[in-house]
């Protein structure tokens, strides 16, 4: 992948003041509600609901409920303007345009998918701060001065996963989704495997909508591979692992938090290792969030839910402390956790947030889990 050149996060006070004058209207004035946007993949082109989008919205809604129960933002209720990007690049760009033009929207929580953040970022630039939720691609680092994210970058996450994979076997096969997410995850993973003395025995791209992975799997089986890393989401991974069991490929599978939902899909996924942005047992704040989420929705939260929750809660703190204004919120986010003259770090449910000059979290917690008996068991942490 191309070398990423970090963009500077500094925006002059004059520029921020101008942005505030241009954008401070709608929810930024008066006593009505304060509005944030929520951009997530809620449905595909045929109207079928996306599980990722449902979790994202539930986490965001829980945050809104808690903010309002705690007195709102400077005494005003918080409400969300929800838009469905359908996990499509064209829709993500269109949604970003709608958010920018809607004078009520002071900041955006979203998008959830890496490729959609990358496509939408130029539209938000200079207008509305976008705090991406579960997006992890390293390319987001250079997406612009108005794009931030809650999730840690795969540039670091992949290092943790590679080291765990090498503990299983030094000979590793990689199957990666042929998109921004797959490329952004597989590249640093493979680099760390090689640095650690391992070998990439097989490397193949795939499309999530593919139905037959047996040619890949038979080739991997023939090479005696015992560790397979899947750089993709659960749709493709579910088919890959199920078919691997059927062809007799005796290997451990590993992937990112995008594979979390495999734990609910049956015994074929037992033993799958998953790099997690969040686990309920990782900290007291993680457990408090899990308890509240279970009470609200009757099921376990995942990384998509907690990242959306933390995004809305941080935006609410920014609006409360810096003022309900687009430019002020963007400036506040840029200083979260800064060594001097910045806002305090944000103690979120998924770990403490401090942003570097590119809007990426610094030293964000990242843990490894294993699917055991239909649950995600915490293995270790960074």
Describe the structure.
It is a single chain. This protein is about 40% helix and about 20% strand. The chain is α/β, with parallel strands linked by helices. It has 2 domains: about 15-150 and about 285-355, Rossmann fold (3-Layer(aba) Sandwich), CATH 3.40.50.2300; about 155-275, Rossmann fold (3-Layer(aba) Sandwich), CATH 3.40.50. The strands form 3 sheets. The protein has a 7-stranded mixed beta sheet, sandwiched between helices. A 5-stranded parallel beta sheet has the order 2-1-3-4-5, with helices on both faces. Residues about 1-25 have low confidence and may be disordered.
By CATH, the superfamily of the largest domain comes out as: Response regulator
Please, how many domains?
A: 2
- According to CATH, the fold-level topology of the largest domain is Rossmann fold
Q: Would you list the SSEs in sequence order as H and E?
A: HEHEHEHEEHEHEHEHEEHHHEEEE
Percentage of residues in strands: 15-25%
What does the overall shape look like? Answer: elongated
Kindly name the structural category.
alpha/beta
Largest sheet: 7 strands, mixed
Q: What is the residue-averaged pLDDT?
A: 91
How many helix segments?
11
Can you give the helix content as a percent range? 25-40%
Distance between the termini: 25 Å
**Total number of beta strands:** 14
